[in-house]
User: Fold Aldo/keto reductase from Reyranella humidisoli.
Amino acid sequence: MSRTLTRSRLIGLAGAGLLAAKGSAAQTGARMHQRRIPASGEMLPVVGVGTWRTFDVGGKPEDRAPLAEVLRRLFDAGGSVIDTSPMYGSAEAVVGDLLSAAGTRDKAFIATKVWTTGRDSGLAQMRASLRLLKTDRIDLMQIHNLVDWRAHLPTLRAWKAEGRIRYLGITHYTQSAHDELESVMRSEKWDFIQINYALDDRAVERRLLPLAAERGIAVIVNQPFGGGGLLRKLSARKLPDWAGEIGATSWAQILLKFVLANPAVTCVIPGTSKPEHMTDNLQGGFGVYPDAALLKKMIADVPV
Assistant:
């Protein structure tokens, strides 16, 4: 296989063969897997979409049309989670515009963040998020990267009590923050955490994922492709023979199914602006996941 083979080309090749047997064709009429949010019992689809960089576009129709199609495919497959943030440029406004234009707000589980210092700045930023997202209620408001979390947590609790947000959470995306995040998880009650986890980034397996399960905290996973670097590195390689055991027809599906094999994970949010990649990613939410024996093989067979 050529080392310059792109992910799109790989998906196309899969579509000519294995995909018809084990991929999206086999899922026609089905809905993706869902997992329980411990705080409420609500079921959440396991694959969503992140908007960092990918939804930071202007108002040109040619820039927004692929993103509208990304969301359409997400919803058509039974997905709902759209994760965004004020720090993602125009992403909140783009998400709000696209959902409003399509009339699909009721299909979306919108997760955004507060990312500033000070109570008053946090209030102003969250009010702006409501306006940009064209909604009167956010499904999940997260304190982004632990920034001034003590100042924002009382506001999040008040907004939840008032019905402005449904769930509250806290996020980070680097291993260097895991010790602090663990302390915050132990000291306060959270509905969600959002953390980095991938085949080449497994530190959360040691403490954070078990702690989330112990304390009844839902887990959203960011960077399931190792920040993109791991997927780029693997995309030139032939799929391993064991990929068929979990119905995976692409490296993206393998990496997503690795993450979702951990029962503490509630949802994974790979970011994309390409509809064909959204379709590929969504297949990670269907079929079977690796068992313990296959997980060991994956870790051993995929040098990272």
Remarks:
- The first strand starts at residue 34 and ends at 36.
- Residues 1-29 have pLDDT under 50 and may be disordered.
- Residues 39 and 191 are 6 Å apart (CA to CA).
- The beta strands are 34-36, 43-45, 49-50, 81-83, 109-114, 138-143, 165-171, 192-196, 218-222, 267-268.
